[in-house]
Amino acid sequence: MSGRRQAVRCRISAAQTQPVDVLSSGAVVNPKSSEPGRIPISVSSLLEVVSEDLQMLNNNLKSIVGAENPVLISAAEHIFGAGGKRIRPALVFLVSRATAQIAGLKELTTQHQRLAEIIEMIHTASLMHDDVLDDSGMRRGKETIHQLYGTRVAVLAGDFMFAQSSWFLANLENLEVIKLISQVIKDFASGEIKQASGLFNSDITLEEYLLKSYYKTASLTSASTKAAAIFSGVSSSICDQMYEYGRNLGLSFQVVDDILDFTQSAEQLGKPAASDLVKGNLTARSFLLSRRNPN
């Protein structure tokens, strides 16, 4: 069964680990912790093990875009300098280091490093296009590319980033990974089409919501975690487990993101609050509320 079909067959079950809360600051706490004050764990602490990898990635991103067009360079510097925790490449590095240890590798390969850069480029390109489609003026507390440079530049910059990432992907010379990551770009388009065709549709099913969430978020995380494992040279069984991990994490991330759109302010989000609801995009909270009270 394909990963996209599996993505919609999810159910919520009791976890074996202690539950955690995610604070608006990005910190994670254990609500049942016996420690006084429920000491939060920051995301930066969780990612400390790959901090040097992320620093190298940040240094490489701007130069990777290329120097053919000054406008593209300016756009890239703006969006790559807008902050963000680089969660997706961090996930690549974390899985890469975990699976590399299993395979007996002492250091990450250049393929691991390039994969993380490709994933961030693909994610960034999708944000550029998303902001145009959603007519968003703010992203991470800063003006979006299309707000600064116009729609044409934003669309072309996103196209260029997709093309550049595809070129670097081809140079990895691993057909399995090429197919895996190429599917992500197709899924992005499928997710946007499904979202656009379902605006203000109160009859959306849980299966449809999860499938759209897979296309828009979990496809990238599942492909990137599996690709990282492939480059470590671990067994196909472990690679498949990394795919499942990335898929479930991506779906969870999207659900939480949808809920935060309702519960946080524009200052906390770095973009207008409740924008999904205003535009008719029914997400997790609105979907569950409509199921509870159909009227």
Automatic annotation (TrEMBL):
Classification via SUPFAM superfamilies: Terpenoid synthases
Record's keyword terms, sorted: Isoprene biosynthesis, Magnesium, Metal-binding, Transferase
Source domain of life: Eukaryota
Keyword Transmembrane helix: no
PROSITE patterns: POLYPRENYL_SYNTHASE_1, POLYPRENYL_SYNTHASE_2
Cofactors (names): Mg(2+)
Gene Ontology terms: biological process: isoprenoid biosynthetic process; plastoquinone biosynthetic process
Cellular-component GO terms for this entry: chloroplast
Listed GO MF terms: metal ion binding; prenyltransferase activity
Membership in a protein family: Belongs to the FPP/GGPP synthase family.
Protein name, as recorded: Prenyl transferase
Species, as recorded: Dioscorea zingiberensis
Highest classification ranks of the organism: Eukaryota, Viridiplantae, Streptophyta, Embryophyta, Tracheophyta
